[in-house]
Design a protein that fits this description.
Number of strands: 5
Strand content: 5-15%
Largest sheet: 5 strands, mixed
Radius of gyration: 19 Å
Number of domains: 2
Structural class: alpha+beta
Number of helices: 11
Strand order of the largest sheet: 3-4-1-2-5
Order of helices and strands: HHHHHHEHHHEHEEHE
Shape: elongated
Length: 226
């Protein structure tokens, strides 16, 4: 549901995307909720541009088409989409922007923002440890968060969130940071409260999914691991 709410929030600033997304949701005739969803999107999962938003929208709709048990997320989208009128020519009028159809080829030719998996380690724990030991821990935490998302995608990397899929299948970029124990605890608590995809090892560190924007870590007092 968090990814759906993130798209809805982004669409508030992009009327063209909002109309297109609403059209495709309405076309699916999902049952709307009688009460609004309580989940609020974390600002650190909201797409940063139209290419990211369209890619995420295509992935989300395809995922919901396959997972018929996701009635809560479907209902939230249907409730939101019910506020929009859907003129018959909307899919034709949004040339190159429609979520479905051959116009999506335009997306593949545009440069996409790279996605990073971010790891934050406890500076005290990391102090004095060898490069090999640090690398091993970073890999373990990274594998845990990716494995969790892969399980949710039914073991198919191509069905993962676009940012995570790009990390797995294109370029596994990782940024490693250090933080004090107190700062790491605050970061971990915030990540959990916002429902961000992450893997946590108490007293050691946390790995944040590629779906989490770098702005999240930027809110805390961390330093890059040299």
């Amino acid at each position: 549901l968090g990814h759906a709410q993130a798209l809805i929030e982004y669409s508030e600033h992009d009327p063209l995307l909002a109309e297109s997304l609403a059209y495709h949701v309405q076309a699916r005739r999902w049952q709307a909720h009688t009460t609004p969803a309580e989940t609020i999107a974390s600002p650190h999962t909201v797409p940063t541009n139209d290419i990211a938003a369209l890619t995420q929208a295509r992935w989300l709709l395809a995922t919901l088409d396959e997972h018929r048990h996701a009635t809560h997320t479907r209902g939230a989208l249907a409730t939101w989409a019910s506020e929009y009128q859907s003129p018959e020519d909307i899919i034709i009028g949004i040339v190159g922007i429609a979520i479905m159809g051959p116009t999506l080829g335009i997306l593949e030719r545009k440069k996409k923002t790279k996605s990073y998996l971010q790891v934050v380690l406890d500076a005290t724990w990391a102090k004095g440890r060898t490069a090999a030991a640090l690398t091993e821990q970073v890999q373990r935490l990274s594998q845990q968060v990716i494995a969790r998302e892969l399980r949710l995608a039914g073991g198919n990397a191509y069905r993962m969130h676009p940012d995570t899929a790009a990390w797995c299948l294109e370029e596994p970029l990782t940024k490693v940071h250090l933080a004090s124990g107190l700062e790491l605890a605050a970061l971990t608590e915030a990540a959990t409260a916002e429902g961000l995809s992450c893997a946590i090892k108490p007293g050691v560190g946390v790995a944040l999914s590629p779906t989490v924007k770098e702005t999240f870590v930027g809110e805390f007092n961390v330093s890059a691991l040299e």
